Amino acid sequence: MLEKDERPESPEEMLRVIQEQSAATSKRLNGDPLLLYVPWGVAWLLGFTALFLHYGLDGRPYAPISQMQGVAVLLVAQMVAGAVAAVGIVRMNRLVRGDSSIRGAMYGYAWSAGMVLMVIIGTRLGPLLPPEENGLLWAGGMLTVVAVLHMVGGALWLSKPMFFTGAWVAAVNALGLLLGAGWHALLTAVLLGGGFIAVGIRWRFRS
């Protein structure tokens, strides 16, 4: 006769354990949102706020910040964000092998190629444009790469949150480009910078 502690678990209890283990495994394989999303949110919040204070909404700066200073803040913040996010990506790739690992590496190369190509385009065409349009070329181009590759990543790994994150970036970017440099900086700082911070924290601590 089985003791109380030795009795088989009920089907409901076994299902609950399986679901909890599956959710924990999924979180590990998808990476830590605090490392993958929050750093970019902070970088965009700081960098695009600096650019917004330079551009203003009526063509007059709100603070004595030059365009180059705003761009410098954005670039430095993104470099730090990239380094932090790389830690999260390395941790994530340690948990996968085979085709999934190869797919992840190729996806990472696509990010590098997209950003390098955008730098080449901006360097080549930017000087031909007025300062505000040059700023829009760089900011809009970079966010386009982010949006498209998030959507592609969502399709590759069948991740709806990742896909719709990319769609959200694309929508905010498009609206900002239509409204002008000041609005683009403001919308990106608030909706994408603040949004990525909120999403990263929510996904990290969701039950």
The number of strands is 0
C-alpha termini separation: 38 Å
Structural class: mainly alpha
Beta-strand percent range? under 5%
Radius of gyration using CA atoms only:
21 Å
Q: What count of helical segments does DSSP give?
A: 8
Poorly predicted parts: 14-26
Order of helices and strands: HHHHHHHH
Largest sheet: none
Overall mean pLDDT stands at: 81
Oligomer: single chain
Domain module count:
1
Name the shape in a single word. Answer: globular
What level of helicity do the residues show?
over 70%
Explain what this protein looks like in three dimensions.
There is one protein chain. The protein is mainly α. It has one domain (35-205). Helices cover 81% and strands 0% of the residues. Helix 3 runs antiparallel to helix 8. Keywords: Membrane, Transmembrane, Transmembrane helix. The chain crosses the membrane at residues 34-57, 69-92, 104-123, 135-157, 185-205.
Question: Quick recap of the structure?
Answer:
With 207 residues, this protein is mainly alpha-helical. Helices cover 81% and strands 0% of the residues.
Ordered list of secondary-structure elements with their pairings:
Blueprint: H1 11-30, H2 33-36, H3 38-55, H4 67-93, H5 98-125, H6 131-156, H7 160-179, H8 181-205
Keywords:
single chain, mainly alpha, membrane, transmembrane, transmembrane helix
